[in-house]
Design goal:
2 domains; single chain; OB fold (Dihydrolipoamide Acetyltransferase, E2P); 4 helices; 6 strands; alpha+beta
Length: 173
């Protein structure tokens, strides 16, 4: 979360900015759930194969003839439960710090407007784009149109707008 300083302040988001964040949050949640689904599916398939293999190779009554990989099915189930718990905790924390922070931002409805100085102006000949390099801690450079590139000079002050937790850039003026 951004700490509001002397050169930044909060103001309500516009409807288009809220809609953009909502669409982005829904896309991110769908992607996250799809990845989590594949992780747990892969984990289930791997552990099922390992459990099946351990059932064929483990014989607790046969001490004289030891198999090459004596895996106990109970041990495999304990490892599977531990891995499931580990992945569930990691994915839960990732969801909390990424997706839920987006929804909290949307619910708050505020954005940060920060006053920044133009440190450097650059024209990128490879992409035919114009860029300002800024004195902001959050946004180091922004792409601008040709009109604004010619209008503003180095050390001019501009206001940049972004969301407070995910730092989605909304624009400048």
């Amino acid at each position: 979360m951004v700490h509001i300083t002397n050169n930044s302040y909060r103001e309500p988001m516009e409807r288009e900015e809220l809609q953009y964040l909502e669409r982005h949050a829904v896309r991110q949640r769908k992607l996250f759930l799809r990845v989590a689904h594949y992780i747990f599916l892969g984990l289930a398939l791997f552990m099922t194969a390992l459990y099946t293999f351990s059932n064929f190779t483990y014989d607790p009554g046969n001490i004289d003839e030891r198999t090459e990989t004596p895996l106990s099915p109970v041990f495999v189930l304990q490892v599977a439960a531990g891995m499931f718990l580990f992945f569930a905790i990691v994915l839960g924390l990732l969801y909390y710090f990424t997706i839920l922070s987006l929804f909290r931002e949307i619910k708050s409805g505020y954005k940060v407007v920060e006053q920044a100085f133009i440190v450097e102006k650059k024209y990128m000949s490879q992409t035919h784009s114009y860029h300002f390099y800024l004195s902001s801690r959050i946004k180091k450079s922004i792409e601008v149109n040709k009109k604004d590139y010619n209008f503003y000079d180095v050390n001019d002050e501009i206001n940049i707008e972004y969301s407070p937790a995910s730092y989605h850039f909304f624009g400048y003026h």
